[in-house]
Amino acid sequence: MLVETIATSGFVLLIRKGKFASLKRLRINGWYFLILSVILQTLLSKSIIPDSFHYTTIISSYTLIVLCLLLNIRRLSIKIALVGVVLNFIVIAFNNGYMPVSLPCLIFAGYDISSIVGNRLDTFHALITASSPFNFLADIIPIPEPYPFPKVLSIGDFFLMVGVFLFFQDLKPKPQVLAKRLKKGSA
What is the tens place of the pLDDT at every residue in 152-176? Predict the structure, then answer.
């Protein structure tokens, strides 16, 4: 989901004549929290962290992401992304550290359900059960073919994608910034 959003954001940014070089000037407070979160989730997905620490690891990982976003809250794009992360965090926290996923939506999206073992889809996802709290925040929105990467998303995922997209669009200088640069260059 994030890879597709970043790729689309980059493509639109290029069309709008934005510059990836702007990333060098971009200051992200607490960026290391994001790196630590990725490391924790990678260690979990590679089974380096035992299952007995699954919940603690996921909660720690999401807490790090929320901290980083809060440190950068002044941007609208970060506020929108934070809403998405918090919505996902809530449903995951109340479902033993797993994002619940609707089985009918998985089937509709074209997912191969023969690979499901028990209730778990993978390290981060489990099937919705009758006792899963906050099902309305779970992965219940199917994105089927003809989309090239069929999947099931949550409401939080959409907020996160919009926030990431807008964040990258902020890399295009605003018209008033361009005017100042042009004026400075002619002086």
Answer: 999 999 999 999 999 988 876 666 5
Both tokens assigned to 95: 């479902």
Q: Are 37 and 62 in contact (CB under 8 A)?
A: yes
Burial class (CB in 10 A: 0-12, 13-18, 19+), 156: buried
The two tokens of residue 125 are 């996802």
d(CA 64, CA 71): 11
Nearest residue to 142 via CA among 116, 112, 104, 115: 104
| pTM to 2 decimal places | 0.86
DSSP character string of 8-57: HHHHHHHHTT--TTHHHH---TTHHHHHHHHHHHHHHHTT-S-GGGHHHH
Q: Letter for the amino acid at 139?
A: D
